[in-house]
Amino acid sequence: MVRECAYWLFTLRITPDDFANDLTVFDWMSQWKQPGDDEQTIRGILGRLLFSQDDIKKPAKVLSGGEKGRMLFGKLMMEKPNILIMDEPTNHLDMESIESLNMALEMYEGTLVFVSHDREFVSSLATRVIELKADRVVDFTGNYEDYLRSQGIV
């Protein structure tokens, strides 16, 4: 049974209220902890999102747009949904943020469904490829490179 599903539309619209208070990065993320989460859980998520020990002491409101995006993804991780549905999650991210997102998703234990034109991102995470063609749907179990080979593309 699906407990929760989180949808991540990565044309992020960070509103001024999202980071308006004076909370540190650590305290901001702590707002989303679940029963059983401890300080180490929060530090682990922040670490996977590439926030250093010094970073987590900064006020969250001074973070860059990319850092705020990573924080919002961390919030999703704290909420522990069973399914993440992501639409072009690497769009508008710098390389550091893409690496951070990749690392976090590799550790994610739920089901991940995503649409992406970022071949490197797809290659690093996909274990099944569903391609929608004009006349049919191709459903392939395996990684992206194997899929390309099966289609005679590589």
The number of distinct β-strands equals 5
Summarize the biggest pleated sheet.
3 strands, parallel
The CATH architecture name reads 3-Layer(aba) Sandwich
Q: How is the CATH topology named? A: Rossmann fold
Query: For this structure, what is the CATH class?
Result: Alpha Beta
Principal-axis shape equals elongated
Return the structural class: alpha/beta
Radius of gyration: 17 Å
Features:
154 residues, Rossmann fold, two-stranded antiparallel ribbon, 6 helices, elongated, ATP hydrolysis activity, ATP-binding
How are the elements arranged and paired?
Elements: E1 5-9, H1 25-30, H2 39-48, H3 65-79, E2 83-87, H4 95-107, E3 111-115, H5 119-125, E4 128-132, E5 137-141, H6 144-150
Parallel strand pairs: 1-2, 2-3
Antiparallel strand pairs: 4-5
Helix pairs in contact: 3-4
What does this structure look like?
The chain is α/β, with parallel strands linked by helices and 154 residues long. The chain has one domain (5-117): Rossmann fold, CATH 3.40.50. Helix content is 38%, strand content 16%. The chain has six helices and five strands. The strands form two sheets. The protein has a three-stranded parallel sheet with strand order 1-2-3, with no helix packed on it. Strand 2, helix 4 and strand 3 form a beta-alpha-beta unit. The longest helix has 15 residues, at 65-79. Residues 8-12 have low confidence and may be disordered. GO terms for molecular function: ATP binding; ATP hydrolysis activity. Pfam families: ABC_tran. Residues 41-91 form the ABC transporter domain. InterPro entries: ABC_transporter-like_ATP-bd, ABCF_ATPase, P-loop_NTPase.
